[in-house]
Structures are given as structure tokens and as C-alpha cells.
């Protein structure tokens, strides 16, 4: 099995690395020059509660991969999608399956348009992980699940084969017939988490220990669920109650990766997560007050970042 993984950072480094570690696939990573130099010197290094490992990964620059792969794992940030499409294009042939593991949903239309819907699976990664400055991929919790499926809901041979490959690794792979619904469920959760932790510059526990924090988070979660339902994807029974409990836990240290991006003064996926939900709220006549506040906060951060005002 030939797998091309765009990126060897957190998500790509972990899931692509697990495939390489188990020799479950022949994995090639498309990376930037600095990351290629790190991997050439030290290997692809992962520290995880599920087992640390180092592999001598095949890391190449964009343009150095020229033959079609069986699968392309697309693990870029949503704001890098156009550059990512150019990078993976040489690896996409008539029988290639693209597995996007981006946040949000807006990338699906773009990938379908460029490569054809028949080549694009839906996918989500459930993991808290980061690439450290020293090149180590650091696992931050015990989640390590990749979920994917055909957009048309069929259980195809290609999704079964990819699951069989991941079943040889320490990562957990799940195939579902309703991947778009699952992507909406993740977006409702993530949009809530990213909005509140970035707005407050605090983790879930710190917000929950304030007088009005739990009510604010619960209200935003309910609005996001309402937006999803209006778009044809109601949340399953118990979903809101489960995440309400998680997001109001006074002992929790959970925070969105977007908050870590802000703290390191990096770019953020504001348009693709919070802005997307704001747009859908307005399209369906749903109160957008909380989303306007959260989105404006992120766009103001982008303004200050662009001006170098830190």
C-alpha cells in the first residue's frame, strides 16, 4: 500500500508515523525544507502515551513526489488548503483516495471540485497533539482515533483496506457510513471549544470556575447544535449533554489547538471553524450574537498579528 502524507507535524506525523512504524504501508511524507532537515537528522520522533517511537521516514519536498499513491492523507491547516492541493496533485491518480483530516467542512467542496467527489473520502482525527520546536511530535492526551468513510455512505473496498492497515498499528481506525454527519458533530464540538477558549484565553476548567462561564459555554454549544440541525445534521441523542458536561468541568485543562496557535502568535483557522458557523447561522436566521463576538475577536487578533503588534 502506497500512502502519501501531506505533512509530518502533529496529525500527519502521528498517523502517518504509526503506519510507517508498523510497516503497514509504504509512507512518503511531503514536508517543508526545515522539517525535511529535522527528519533527515533525527528521524520522525513521536512521544505518546501509547508508546514512543522513532522511524527513518521518507520525507520529500513538494514536487519531489511524482507517482500516484493509493491514499493521500491530507493533514494541513485549512488556511493552507490551496497550497496543499498543488502539493498533492502529482500523487493523485485515477484510483487514489484522498483522506482529508482538516478541521471544519468547507474544504470538502473545494477538494470535490478539484479532484472529483469519487476520489475524496470524508475524515476526522480525534487527537490532541503538537509539533514541538525540536521536531518531536508530542501527544497531549490518550485520544488517537482516525475516522473516515465514503461520502456516499457505502462500505467500499478501499476504506476497508485502509482500516486493515491501521488495525496493524497502535492507532485506532473507525469506518462509518455517515462520515459527513460525524464531521458536523466534530465541528459543533470544536467550534464551541475554539470559540470560548480563544475568546477567554483560558482552558475549560479556568472558564468553568468563573461565575458565568458555564452558562456562556452551554449557550454557545446549544446554538452550534441548532445551526447543525438547520443544515440537516441534528446532533444525536445525548450529544449536547455529554459535551456540556465536558465543557463545564472545573478541573479540566482542555483547550483548543487554536488557542495554542494564538499563544505562539501563529495563524488561526478562524474562517473555517467559527466563521463557517457564523455564516450558517445567518443563512438560517439563527441568533448570531455569540458567534459575532467570537469571530470578531479572532479577526481582530489576525489584524494585530499582521501588523506585528504583540
Topology:
Elements: E1 2-6, H1 10-21, E2 26-30, H2 33-42, E3 44-47, E4 53-55, E5 58-60, E6 71-74, H3 81-88, E7 97-100, H4 106-115, E8 121-126, E9 129-131, E10 136-139, E11 145-150, H5 157-167, E12 172-175, H6 179-200, H7 204-208, H8 213-230, H9 239-247, H10 257-263, H11 270-283, H12 289-307
Terminal-residue CA separation: 47 Å
> Which fold name fills CATH's third level, the topology of the largest domain?
Rossmann fold
Compressed to H and E, one letter per element, the order equals: EHEHEEEEHEHEEEEHEHHHHHHH
Give the helix tally: 12
How many discrete domains? 2
- State the total count of DSSP E strands: 12
The fourth-level CATH homologous superfamily of the largest domain is NAD(P)-binding Rossmann-like Domain
Give me the side-by-side strand order of the main sheet.
Answer: 5-2-1-6-7
- Shape by Cα distribution: globular
Unreliable segments of 5+ consecutive residues: none
Q: Helix coverage percent of residues? A: 40-55%
Report the major sheet.
Answer: 5 strands, parallel
In CATH, the architecture of the largest domain is 3-Layer(aba) Sandwich
Report the radius of gyration as a whole number of Å: 19 Å
Q: Mean pLDDT score, rounded?
A: 96
What portion of residues belong to β-strands?
15-25%
Task: Explain how this protein is built.
The structure is a single chain. By secondary structure, the chain is an alpha/beta fold. The protein has 2 domains: 176 residues, NAD(P)-binding Rossmann-like Domain (Rossmann fold), CATH 3.40.50.720; 127 residues, N-(1-d-carboxylethyl)-l-norvaline Dehydrogenase, domain 2 (Orthogonal Bundle). The strands form 3 sheets. The protein has a 5-stranded parallel sheet, with helices on both faces. A 4-stranded mixed sheet has the order 4-3-10-9. The chain has a 3-stranded mixed sheet with strand order 8-11-12, with helices on both faces. α1 links the parallel β1 and β2. α6 packs antiparallel against α8, α8 packs antiparallel against α9 and α11 packs antiparallel against α12. The model has no long low-confidence stretch (mean pLDDT 96).
